[in-house]
């Protein structure tokens, strides 16, 4: 009998991505990988790849690392996200001060989150998907920004764009055009659709 759930390997240490999968009823084994993401981004840029192509390349690299020594039938999910402000990519901030600078650059403007997800079976990619939610930051005051940085502190250093939309970061925005799961880093409905097509979960 086909199962409502399935077991996935998640090539990430992201608590948000794991939460999305587990809340959907899937069993997740997290397998964080040691990838020099900045070096790969620079390589993709040198090759003239778009930020969307780079996001997919990063997800691919994570999946390749995570699928080493796995069985042929193992399903592995990997994802990556690049913040695109008019063609300029933002990396995760290294400090709270740098987070503040990122937010000042994003303030009052619309950016795109190039969010890639790939599915591997064994060591072979069998599916990929790219979502591009658009987010508009409001023209928040310096006082608000300082209070926000003090409240969030180091928690935002693991976030592209220096915000957690599932937390106080939602107050930075005036509009979000895209699904919450894609903003959080894993477009869930397309992934579930592919798992149903593969008959990995019940149809």
From TrEMBL:
According to its UniProt record, the EC number is 3.6.1.9
In terms of domain of life, where is this protein from?
Bacteria
User: Localized where?
Assistant: Cytoplasm
Reactions catalysed, as given in the entry: a 2'-deoxyribonucleoside 5'-triphosphate + H2O = a 2'-deoxyribonucleoside 5'-phosphate + diphosphate + H(+); a ribonucleoside 5'-triphosphate + H2O = a ribonucleoside 5'-phosphate + diphosphate + H(+)
Question: Which enzyme class?
Answer: hydrolase
**Which residues are catalytic?**
80 (proton acceptor)
Sorted alphabetically, which Gene3D superfamilies does this protein's record hold?
A: 3.90.950.10
- Write down the required cofactor(s): a divalent metal cation
- Return the SUPFAM superfamilies for the record: ITPase-like (SSF52972)
Q: Keywords, A to Z?
A: Cytoplasm, Hydrolase, Nucleotide metabolism
UniProt keyword Disulfide bond, yes or no? no
What PANTHER family would the database entry show? BIFUNCTIONAL DTTP/UTP PYROPHOSPHATASE/METHYLTRANSFERASE PROTEIN-RELATED, BIFUNCTIONAL DTTP_UTP PYROPHOSPHATASE_METHYLTRANSFERASE PROTEIN-RELATED
Report the sequence similarity comment from the record: Belongs to the Maf family.
Q: What does this protein do?
A: Nucleoside triphosphate pyrophosphatase. May have a dual role in cell division arrest and in preventing the incorporation of modified nucleotides into cellular nucleic acids.
- Report what the protein is called: Nucleoside triphosphate pyrophosphatase
Annotated organism of origin? Gluconobacter kondonii
